[in-house]
Amino acid sequence: MKKTVLIACLILSDIIALQAQEIFEDTNNLYGLKDKTGNIIVSGKYDDANDFSEGVALVRLNGKYGYIDQTGKEIIPLKYDGADKFQEGLAGAAIIDKEEQRRKYGFIDQTGEVIIPLKYHTVEYFSDGLAAVKLDGKWGFVDKTGKEIIPLKYKYVGYFYDGLAVVQLNDKFGIIDKTGNEVIPLIYSKLRGFSGEFAAVKLNDKWGFVDKTGKEVIPIQYDEVWDFGEGFGRVKLNGEWIVIDKTGKKVM
Prior knowledge:
Layout: H1 2-19, E1 22-25, E2 31-34, E3 40-46, E4 48-49, E5 56-61, E6 64-69, E7 74-80, E8 82-83, E9 91-97, E10 102-108, E11 114-120, E12 122-127, E13 130-135, E14 138-142, E15 148-154, E16 156-157, E17 164-169, E18 172-177, E19 182-188, E20 190-191, E21 199-203, E22 206-210, E23 216-222, E24 224-225, E25 233-237, E26 240-244
Antiparallel strand pairs: 1-2, 2-3, 4-5, 5-6, 6-7, 8-9, 9-10, 10-11, 12-13, 13-14, 14-15, 16-17, 17-18, 18-19, 20-21, 21-22, 22-23, 24-25, 25-26
InterPro entries: WG_beta_rep (IPR032774)
Protein name: WG repeat-containing protein
Keywords: Signal
């Protein structure tokens, strides 16, 4: 039993030591890898490097991007013309299309395998299992198989959070769910993501708040608003900032 516990402790110690490694910048403005005690694992050699995300770090050298693990091993070759950090197991990566003379983005996994073809003009991180992608000026969302779950038709999209995302079609904003259904209709001139139960919306130069069903719970009558926090929101009416509760009643 004691031997088993000792082995388990040693394994845990190794894991903690592995996770303790970090990127550093040397006096020549080059980036390397060291542990928390300051021991150099990889001397400064990269032109740029990101902090670790999901156990790997994005690095750049001579204009090319790749990834290293926490031992300093280059697990994905530095061959990409653009790349992002890993999020939910995948990372955006790009190669310059010589014919179009522009970057084409897709997604790779931590083995370097291309999971979603490098065909988009821009991609964002995965969030809630979906990633925003842009092609020919239009945004939509793909899942982790590359299937376009929400059509590429929007002028702007935000990240999915708790199953909802802000989108803009033409000049109007609303919120959709992960099936593409409009939870908040696309009728507002501006819209912020949910802060707690409510989202701030702007219509005809006035601000108010809607809930997650799209109901306007705080009238659209304010000159400016701050997001709700802990049941209260700051709003500006007739030049005066006041605090209201979730019913719209002034409390301060």
